[in-house]
Write a structure and sequence with these properties.
Length: 181
C-alpha cells in the first residue's frame, strides 16, 4: 500500500508526523511525503522544518493508493491554493483510490464537492455545506477517512491502518507506542 502525505507550509505538525509515525510503525505502508512549495524543506505551523521525500513535480500521484492531507489553517490554505491538488483529488477518488484528511483539511474536500452527502468530521468552523458533519473524533466512509483535530491524530492514523489491514495491524503498533512487552 503506497501512501502520499502532502506537506504545505503551515501544516499541523502532529497531524502529519504522528500519522506518518504510526503508519510507519505498522510496517505495512510505503509512505512518501511530498512538498507543494517547490522546495523539499517545509515549515510546520509551529516552525518545525521537515524535509519532504519529494517535490510534487517529481512524483506521479496516481502511482499511490491513498493521499493524506494534514490540517493546520495556513497549511490548508496553501493546499487549497495549489491548483494541481484541486484537479488531482476528484480524479483520484473517481479511480477508486482513497483520500484521508484531518482537522481543517476536510474543508478541501468539501470545497471541491467531494463529500456529496457523506458523513465527515473536521475542526469546528471548517464544516462543509454538502456533507453531514459528525461531532466525533474520526469518520470513515468507503474511500474517505476524516479526523476532527490534532487531539484525535492517534485515532485517525489507527483508523487508516485498520481500514486497510484490520485491528491486528493496529495492535501491532502498540508495543512501540505504549511501551508494551
Amino acid at each position: 500500500m503506497k501512501i502520499l502525505i502532502f506537506l504545505a507550509d503551515g501544516f499541523e505538525t502532529v497531524e502529519a508526523l504522528l500519522t506518518l509515525d504510526l503508519l510507519t510503525r505498522s510496517h505495512r505502508f510505503e509512505i512518501t511525503t511530498v512538498s507543494i512549495s517547490g522546495q523539499k524543506s517545509v515549515a510546520s505551523s509551529i516552525g518545525v522544518n521537515v524535509e519532504a521525500d519529494a517535490l510534487y513535480e517529481e512524483i506521479d500521484p496516481f502511482a499511490f493508493d491513498a493521499i493524506i492531507l494534514p490540517g493546520g489553517k495556513k497549511g490548508v490554505d496553501n493546499l487549497k491554493a495549489f491548483a494541481p491538488l484541486s484537479l488531482l483529488l476528484p480524479s483520484f477518488l473517481e479511480k477508486g483510490k482513497d483520500v484521508h484528511a484531518i482537522c481543517a483539511a476536510p474543508s478541501i474536500l468539501g470545497s471541491l464537492g467531494l463529500l456529496n452527502d457523506l458523513p465527515y468530521t473536521c475542526f469546528p468552523g471548517f464544516e462543509c455545506g454538502e456533507g453531514h458533519y459528525q461531532d466525533v473524533g474520526v469518520v470513515e466512509t468507503a474511500h474517505i477517512i476524516t479526523g476532527h483535530s490534532m487531539g484525535y491524530t492517534m485515532e485517525f492514523a489507527s483508523a487508516i491502518i485498520r481500514h486497510y489491514y484490520g485491528e491486528e495491524a493496529v495492535k501491532s503498533t502498540h508495543p512501540g507506542v505504549y511501551g508494551l512487552r
